[in-house]
Every structure is written in structure tokens, then in C-alpha cells.
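Help wanted!
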Amino acid sequence: MPSPDLTLAEAYADPAVQAFGKALRAAITFEKDYASLIDIESAETADAFADAVRRFLRRNYTSATRPTVGELGSLMSMAKSDRDVRTLRAAIISYGLSRWDKKEEK
Amino acid sequence: MQFYVTKSGLEIFDACRAYGLAQLLQVLAGGESEPRIVDSGGTFLITMCVRPETRDFKASNQWVALFATGYWKHVFLTYKAAWKDQSGKVKDSLQKSAFQVIDEAEKNGLPVTFGAGFALPGSLEPVGFKGLKGLTGGSYSEGQTEVDEFNWALGCLGAVVAQHYKIQKAQGNKWEYFVSVPIPSEVGFSNFQKIRELVYNTGLNYTGVRNAAAHFAVLLADAVRELAEGNPFFPVRFSNLLCFSLFQSGQQFKPSRGDVANLGALIDMALQRPTETGAMFDTWNYLFSRGSVKGNEDLAEAITELVMAPSLETYYQHARIFNRYVVDKGVKPENLYTPEALKEVMHYAKS
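Answered by r_m:
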């Protein structure tokens, strides 16, 4: 039986997506890491998504907001199909649209 | 008391007839009772607690005010300077036969007789325009759609009451009209009038009719939320928002594209979770407002698509473009989504 598709709200609420979303938001705001944003936005398949995440982690390996290995594993386990990837990338970039405390995050 | 408006199949015209009859009943009842419009499938049902009595129309301030409004000019746009004669005809017709109309609505549901001599104004219902409306049957021209006098007069009155016109300059020093009308599902007429006061005179510079309709849908749902004051059973529900545009071709106006927005989903959210949805509407209003500025059309298009056709794809486009503005051009923190509002947007995108 095929597994049901991941929904946007489920993906957004997931702790691993939250960790990546907040880390991307901080990387863009404080480090001007626009390349990672473009990489994640343009990922259409599970492989491309894994590549984009890998590059993002390499660019931000010293960052205090860097997600953990466990969170990385959890995120990758959710990216099973192309539709899941589209849902995950939408959920990750959504963290940039909500209000947050820049001082606290820094 | 129950009155019926049998649907003819012309959706905008049918909704305008229902609004028109509700308005006429309210005037005749002298404000003592509130008409309520309910969509019951093949008919619009209009209920009143009291039986309307004979009234002197000249003594009714509401009636006088209705015919003093400049909205008639928009309804009879294609008549140019003769719009005053047409509004006068509507007034005379309804004053002369108001009780005949009401009796007919009570007994037979005012079925529309097509081809009965009264031309449907094109700015009321695009089907009213000349031109082919179906398969050609040997003839390549078709005249204006004509209906009977009672339904024509009620439709025109309803258009003045319920249609929203946004007029803006188009290319080549010409004008274009964006017309929208909310289709009632269950509407208390007094509440509808309050909503009308709140939102019908607002508007921005839009990129097209879809953009105008999407913003109007958000404004309507927000007004319902505001008036409901937390009551999830507030008796104002619209099913859809129908819209179409008219453009100037030479000296004449012609119909252009039309569309439908699902207003029901927005209103349900606004009534069930008013605080979160209110915060969502605040951000959406900001997006429409910023998108109305030259150079920001991508923002306007993205939020329009999300409102008109909610899906993961339209949500993603909106998130991607909004994120660009946050990163590149700057957005004040108060214009970003609250975490609760963002969850509502995701909920809407799923609907």
C-alpha cells in the first residue's frame, strides 16, 4: 500500500524541518547565504534535494544554528518522492515568512 | 413569508435578482423586518417575518437614496449618457408593479421569460452582450439577451446593491472595469449592507480582474469576520465570488475574461478561527497593497493565485516570491505572518 503524501502542515511542524528552516533563515539573514536558498528552491527530486541540503550544511558548518545529524537523517527519511520534496522545500522556506526575534536567534 | 427567485442559469443575473427582491422587500417593509436570502439549489429563497405593506415610495429615504447613487451609471455603462433614462425606467417599473412582482415571487418564483423585450445590460451580466453565445445554427450573429420587465428591473436593482465595480485606467488612455458579485449562500440583508459599507469603496491599482477579485474576496471575508465578533454561526455566508472584466474597444465596452473565487472556504476559516485568520488577512492585505505598486506585480500575481486556486504549487510560488522580498527588498516584521497565521495559510492551501 503506498504511503500517504506528506502534508505541508505536517512538514512545517516537524522538528527536523523546523531546525533546517530556522538554520536557512539565519544563514540568509546573517551570512547572506543566498546560494543555499536557490539550491533548496530549485530541488525537484530527492537526489537534488539531498545535494542541496549537503551543500547548505557544508557552507554553514561553523554556524551555531547548524542542524544535528539526527535532524538531517529525519529530514532525508521524509523526502521519499518528488511530491514530498516539493512539500519539504515549501515548508523549509516558509520559516522565512514568519515573525522571529533576530537578536535572540543571533 | 417566503418568496422565491427561480434560477435562470445566468448566475450573475440570478444573484442580482435575489438581491434586488430582498432590497425591494426591505423598502416595502419600512425596515421593520430583515429579508434573508438562502440559496436552495434551483431557487433563491427570500424570507421575511412580516408581510410587506403598501408604502409611498417617495416617503422612503432608502428608496430615494438607492436611485440617487452613481452606481446606476456603471450598471448601464453601455448606454452611456442614457443611463439616467434606464434607471428611471427601473424605478417606474418597480414603483408601478411592486406588489405584482412580490405576488409573483410568492406564488410562481418569478421565472425569467427570455426574449421579452427588455435588454439585459452587458455590465450586469456578460451574457447580455451581442455576439455568439453558443453553437452557430446557420447564423453568425446574435442580438442582445432580452428578458421580461419584472426580472429586468429586479436584476438592475440588485446589481446596484450587490455588484462591486473597480474602474481603472488601461493602456492607451482607456478605461477598464472589473466587476464582481458575491453569490449568497445564506445572507441576512442588513448584515450584507453593513459589509457593503465596509468594503465596497475600497480598492487598489490591480494587475487584472483576477487580482481585483482575489483582493475583494479577502476584504469580504475579513469584513464578515469583523462583524461576526467571534460568532461562528454568523448568518452571512457566500458561496462564490463571480467576476468579469469589461474593456473599452473604440467607443464601446466589451466583455473580457471572467473567473470564480471560492469565497465559502475563506469565510468558513474567518468564522471558525477569527484571530488566526485575521492575522493571515492582515499579511495578505499587505501583499496586495505592496503588489499594487509598479514593479511589484510578481507579488500581486503570487498572492492572487494562492487566493484563487489554493494548492501546494500556488502556496510555494507565493512563499518563494514573498521570501525574495523579505531577503532583498525588506519587509517590516509586523507585515510577516504570525506562526498561527502561517498555519492557517497552509490549511487554506490544502483546501
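OP: Thanks! One thing I noticed: Chain A has one domain: 8-96.
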